[in-house]
Amino acid sequence: MAKLRDPNGGCPWDIKQDFDSIVPYTIEEAYEVADAIEQRDFDELRLELGDLLLQVVFHAQMAKEQSLFDFDDVVAGINEKLIRRHPHVFANQAFADEAAVTANWEAEKQKERAQKGSADSGLLDSVTLGLPALSRANKLQKKASKVGFDWPSPEPVFAKIKEELDEVAEELAASDINKTRLEAEIGDLLFAVVNLARHHHIDPEHALRVSNGSFQRRFGFIEQTLAAEGRSFADSNLAEMDALWREAKKHFNN
């Protein structure tokens, strides 16, 4: 990477990049790692992890050029953090149970925020804004639950979903639909569904990725069936496509 970034003989594309321009690639590579895992394609996972590692090296090299930090500092930092947050592993500190381990983890993170001068920030302020919305909702809820702000069981969460769905229906029934209010109500509905997933220990982001895959496979079945008959979507209608959709569900369990 140092050679690629070298102004004398390096790659023009790599040379002109900066932290901001590389961010989309970093995010994309992380998603491609997740996709390889979901597909259980471990040869591809090996390659994608290399691509993701390249992003770390790229950022570290740019930081080194600005005398901010280098790759060794990145590795040293994560090593130090892991040791500090796992005293039950590295310092023979005893905890009564997993809950106590988690409580210590959160206490250590609070100390880290204090050292950064952000101890007075809210509990939820540390949840990254850049996360996908479903993942961020899940993390916000987990954070709040650790201080007791949570439904006691999944049953009231399910009731909340019904309540939010009714509120969406009310907005849609209005003679003059207010898009801002409708958006807010749909957002509340999605947030409640995330809550239900969390209570059943299901990652909502992963659940939606699975559903996206199911939709793509079933829709592809419709497209391929029509093509095999020498037809396109324009030559079909909704009723026929719905029938093919039901047929696709028989072919694909998920």
Automatic annotation (TrEMBL):
It comes from the Bacteria. Keywords: Hydrolase. Its EC number is 3.6.1.8. InterPro entries: MazG-like_dom, NTP-PPase_MazG-like_C, NTP-PPase_MazG-like_N, NTP_PyrPHydrolase_MazG. Residues 17-90, 155-207 form the NTP pyrophosphohydrolase MazG-like domain. It catalyses: ATP + H2O = AMP + diphosphate + H(+). GO terms for biological process: dATP catabolic process; dGTP catabolic process; dTTP catabolic process; dUTP catabolic process; response to stress; TTP catabolic process; UTP catabolic process. One of its GO terms (molecular function) is ATP diphosphatase activity. It is an enzyme of class 3 (hydrolase). Belongs to the nucleoside triphosphate pyrophosphohydrolase family. PANTHER family: NUCLEOSIDE TRIPHOSPHATE PYROPHOSPHOHYDROLASE (PTHR30522). This is Nucleoside triphosphate pyrophosphohydrolase. The gene is mazG.
